[in-house]
Amino acid sequence: MDSLAITKAIEDQEWLGPVADGLQKGVGAAYEAGGDAGRKVEDALHGVWLGHPLHAVLTDIPLGAWSVAAALDVMEAAGNEKVAAGADAAVGIGLLGALGSAVTGLTDWYRLDGKATKRVGGAHALINITATALYGVSYGLRKTGHRGAGRVFGFLGMGVVSAGAFLGGMLVYDQKIGVDHSDREKLEEDAGDFVDVLAWDDLPDGKPTRVEVNGHAVVLVRDSDNVHALADSCAHLGGPLSEGKLCDGGIVCPWHESRFALTDGRVLDGPSTFKQPHYETKVENRRILVKYGDTVMEG
Questions:
Q1: Alpha-carbon distance 244 to 251, whole Å?
Q2: Is 3.40.50.2300 the CATH number for 186-291?
Q3: Is pLDDT above 80 for 191?
């Protein structure tokens, strides 16, 4: 199956544009209305506290539970009535998990831009909402004694949620959503000694400045007598931190407003859940030297 052709077909669905835009604005408005508390909730749902996107963890709950339900439904349809209660419980657990998955997924998605990403993400959300609705009907039918019809809706839901999972995989593997964009795999491979990158007088105080160290883009920030160095490519989606702004001891990505601590690259505000690689610096003879290699990885 050609995933690029599927992406193009979804991207060409003009009706998805207004739907995606409206949904993103609605989610953003809800968090903005919450002020500082809303930002903390958003960061928690992104998975900042986990160091990993929370949505990816929660999607396993409905997919796993509904897979179990499908297997038990087949057994019940074959005459094993003892598994009926287990199938119903699995459907219910999947519905609860789907709520958490939906909230975290929308939280991650509303921060994204680009027509293909927005529309594929929007289609992913709509398909999964449809699957959840089908399982909701299935659960209701089961509890009112219409078990055959309940199983039918369950099987329909499994087919739809599988399509949604396929689109979710496209977002991760084709469009690199929810993965680390900071070139972290190069840190150990290209780590080396201190490299002279810039004269002290050429680095303005409080102005992010891009330099290269061992062929890798690094952003320098001078804070009085200190110099901080982080990878320039934002771990969230690769935005240039050197074009960002400084705020409360951190640097803010200009693309999606992730904020990283200047002192060690830890995430202060999402949507990024990955820390930013942070490099050791020193000043000798009024020259700034940077040692490529994440200070956290080094110990």
A1: 7
A2: no
A3: no
